[in-house]
Write a structure and sequence with these properties.
Length: 402
């Protein structure tokens, strides 16, 4: 009898051990640990700080409402300093030491690109909120999702059509940074201008992240007699370039990439920004008097009362909305959470938005591009305002996944 009892006890211990091992990393009976990374130091810290704070606010709200299927969301954050090597190290620490269930990237393209191969090798879900690097969603991989930002190729489609229809531009100069994000936006725009409208930019001029003097590039644009200057980089760089352009006497219109459609660009560029146009990744910007924004900013400022001028910014909003999308995917996964149920949960999301502050997110089993909606805006009297424009050209993006 004693032998049978010992055998039964041993079997129970083995079963308990099996159940413990079967539980995915980062998941307990009452919590889900999510690892996030982004730049909270370096030249792109305005992205990562906002991404961290926006996501943290959303998770706090979700936990206060009872969590997800009875589990609280726990956020562990690492600084990637806008470096591919640092981002890879951050991802490895989160996965191998902190044992997170999934990764959330709230960093830029330059850094996030450094983690893609590792994520694929580990078979771990990663939701990318801000980076537009093409490798996130093309070629397709079931573990990688793109949220509030959009496919780089989609930037190219919208930018090219807008430049063609709004400016009737045949004489375009593109000034873009050499790092991942602005270079990719410039490449995509050039490709679609040629493919859809048979327009080749007069010149393609480049700069390094953090540059302060854009006189060489602007002088090149001036000599080319361009109708419009398309600028792809960071808000601080664009603000300096626009101000220096006006100081040099350039009269050309400025079109800027989505990252620059932010109140910080207008504040830094001052009057020189008036007339600039671009596309926003969010339906309304911080500072809007729309009721949803007023209510959200009050919550945000209560949570972060010592935040610097310029916050919250667009990336707070994007990460906040995407944190809710992640939670929705977890909810749909059900109580028996694992990687497969979570991926399937996200793939079932259609036109989800936490509020009017966010563009709708949709995924499928064939594509993981959450957002194809951007809002055209123009700087008028010192503020970005939506303008009436609707692209007529059918997108080629989703055709790749059919």
């Amino acid at each position: 009898m004693k032998t049978l009892v010992n055998a039964a006890h041993g079997a129970l211990l083995a079963l308990a051990s099996f159940i413990a091992c079967a539980q995915p990393a980062g998941v307990t009976s009452d919590s889900i640990t999510i690892g996030a990374f982004g730049p909270i130091s370096g030249p792109a810290s305005y992205i990562g700080l906002a991404g961290r704070d926006g996501a943290a606010l959303a998770f706090k709200e979700i936990n206060a409402a009872g969590g997800v299927n009875g589990r609280r969301l726990r956020l562990v954050f690492e600084d990637d300093a806008h470096s591919p090597a640092r981002a890879l190290a951050a991802a490895k620490k989160l996965v191998e030491q902190d044992k997170v269930f999934m990764l959330l990237s709230v960093g830029g393209s330059n850094a996030t690109a450094g983690t893609i191969d590792y994520v694929k090798e580990r078979g771990l879900p990663m939701y990318v909120s801000i980076a537009s690097t093409p490798a996130v969603t093309f070629p397709f991989n079931r573990m990688l999702f793109r949220g509030g930002t959009t496919e780089t190729a989609r930037y190219g489609e919208l930018y090219a059509e807008f430049l063609n229809s709004q400016y009737n531009a045949q004489r375009i100069v593109i000034i873009s940074g050499r790092e991942e994000y602005p270079r990719n936006e410039g490449d995509a725009t050039v490709a679609k201008l040629k493919e859809w409208f048979n327009v080749t930019p007069l010149n393609r001029l480049e700069f390094n992240v953090g540059d302060k003097d854009f006189t060489p590039q602007l002088s090149g644009a001036q000599r080319s007699t361009a109708d419009v200057i398309a600028f792809f980089g960071n808000p601080a760089e664009a603000a300096l370039a626009v101000r220096q352009a006006r100081d040099l006497g350039l009269k050309q219109s400025f079109f800027v990439g989505a990252t620059m459609v932010d109140p910080a660009f207008v504040a830094a560029a001052r009057g020189a920004a008036d007339g600039a146009k671009g596309f926003s990744l969010v339906p309304m910007l911080p500072g809007s008097k729309a009721p949803d924004m007023v209510q959200w900013e009050a919550k945000w400022k209560k949570e972060y009362p010592s935040a610097p001028v310029g916050r919250p910014n667009n990336f707070d909003l994007i990460a906040y909305a995407d944190a809710y999308v992640v939670a929705e995917g977890l909810r749909r996964a059900g109580a028996k959470l694992n990687v497969e149920s979570f991926v399937s949960g996200l793939e079932s999301v259609r036109e989800y938005r936490v509020s009017a502050l966010a563009t709708p997110r949709s995924f499928s089993s064939k594509h993981h591009i959450g957002n194809l909606h951007l809002v055209p805006m123009e700087v008028r009297k010192g503020a970005w305002e939506p303008i009436p424009w609707q692209g007529a050209h059918e997108s080629d993006i989703l055709k790749r996944y059919q």
